[in-house]
Amino acid sequence: MKIKTLLLSCLIGxxxxxxxxxDVQTRQIRFGYGLNENSxxxxxxxxxxxxxxxxxxxxxxxxxxxxxxxxxxxxxxxxLLGGAQEMMVGSxxxxxxxxxxxxxxDTPFLFNSAEEADVILDGPVGxxxxxxxxxxxxxxxxxxxxxxxxxxxxxxxxxxLEDLDGIRLRVMQNNVFLDSFRNLGANAVPMAFSELxxxxxxxTVDGQENPFNTILSSKFYEVxxxxxxxxxxxxxxxxxxxxxxxxxxxATERDILLEAAKTARDFERExxxxxxxxxxxxxxxxxxxVNELSLExxxxxxxxxxxxxxxxxxxVGQDLWDELQAALTELRSN
Length: 334
Ligand code: TK8
What we know:
The chain has 2 domains: about 25-145 and about 235-275, Bacterial extracellular solute-binding protein, family 7 (D-Maltodextrin-Binding Protein, domain 2), CATH 3.40.190; about 150-235 and about 280-325, Bacterial extracellular solute-binding protein, family 7 (D-Maltodextrin-Binding Protein, domain 2), CATH 3.40.190.170. About 50% of the residues lie in helices and about 20% in strands. The protein has helices at about 1-20, 40-55, 75-80, 115-120, 125-130, 175-185, 195-200, 210-215, 245, 250-285, 295-305, 305-315, 320-334, and strands spanning about 25-30, 60-65, 85-90, 140-150, 150-155, 170, 185-190, 205-210, 225-230, 235-240, 290.
């Protein structure tokens, strides 16, 4: 009887293991991203690739392509939809053409801290927005941190809203960003990130806005003299899988990708926050002239952006908007 039980449990154990191994095929997964290899995005992609390899005994191989070598965010999204590329990480803001609900994350001054962003993005509202992608042909795995965005330009220090007048400012290809900066008085120009450095260098545009990390890793300090600390919006990145590819994966393979994306997310958020805390001083050392906005100017900025909120609520649906606001209110009451 005892031997039988032992034998049975051995058999069950063996079947789980062999099931898991048989369930993972040898596969190459092309994973594209927009920033340099030497950036928070690049470092986290490396963690993801290593973790996928570890969990799959080397059977699933992530081939990472940084620096937009597979294309801009929007081009990569299209390649995922068509099945020509398997995975990517990029801004949620550039996904609004595929899932309009993504625009909810572009709400100016939505989150007061990165920790608030974590709770909301990893909670039910974040999941609900992510799930909208599936019927469009994309699978969202997790949100990574791009971070709070700040303004740079090559013309003059921006100390008041009026200083934005006439500044040609590159924004992401997203109406909320376009409307926000038009409301603030800038001459907003939508453009892919992959074209940005050259556009700044040739003065096709005067300025741009991105987190300190990106200003540093993309060497924008070489072509931008002024940095204004605005923290006007928190940007998430999202890790995406082509649904055409996902549909061919076994449950074990899917679990491996999701688990690895979560491990990389936790690494990435910590790494990004550490880097952001150091980056401003480093940018100053590189010669950027940094200024903060007065509270009064921040208030003026907020009040100009209220219209944008109404447009976002209409675009993403009032129910979703209300759900997010309720989640934030609850979070802040704790
Ligand atoms: C990188 C972009 C970037 C974003 C932007 O591909 O476009 O300004 O902040 O991180 O997604």
